[in-house]
Amino acid sequence: MSRHNVEHFSYEEIARLVAPNSSVLDLGCGNGELLQLLRDTRNSRVRGVDIEESMIRQCLAKGISVFQGNLDEGLKEHASGSYDYVILNETLQMVHDPVQLIREMVRVGRTAIVNFPNFGTILNRIQLLAGGRMPVNRDLPYQWYDTPNIHFCTRRDFASLCDEVGVKITHAVDIRHGRRISSRLANLLATECCFLLEGLGR
Hints:
Structural class: alpha/beta
Distance between the termini: 28 Å
Shape: globular
Order of helices and strands: HEHEHEEHEHHEEHE
CATH topology: Rossmann fold
Largest sheet: 8 strands, mixed
Helix content: 25-40%
Strand content: 25-35%
Number of helices: 7
Strand order of the largest sheet: 3-2-1-4-5-8-6-7
Number of domains: 1
CATH superfamily: Vaccinia Virus protein VP39
């Protein structure tokens, strides 16, 4: 699963959440830009997973350790607690079984970082209500028939899911068009949401 065709959550925002000298696994790593940033600025030991051969070649050209894999098949090849961080950047909405993948992330990583577009943002609500059609805008640039997104969730949906499956949210970053905003109105105003997660057993 590759995210290289979508607008990314800020790599710098993610880097701020990663402690120096840690091990990082990036799921759907694309061309390896995020892992390169973490390696070069946080001294992270990095590895990526992507399904597309062209992305794997670009990672290898950057000196990034990467292997080809389908996220819908899970992370069974990874031992529990084998990474400090497991990252899923702008890919949650594209996988077929996000619940299972989240469970696997908090098993394999001591901390999971998940970010995704907030489909409950106010512009999407207005476009759907006023026009009666699926929203298309700068934050959701696809038509309903060609979108890579197969699961649409809001910030509140994701927080509820974490509670249901026994995953603890330890920190949240809410972004509106590249700027951090308060979590108080984030379900309505945030265009992107990022959560740090841990299993309840940690």
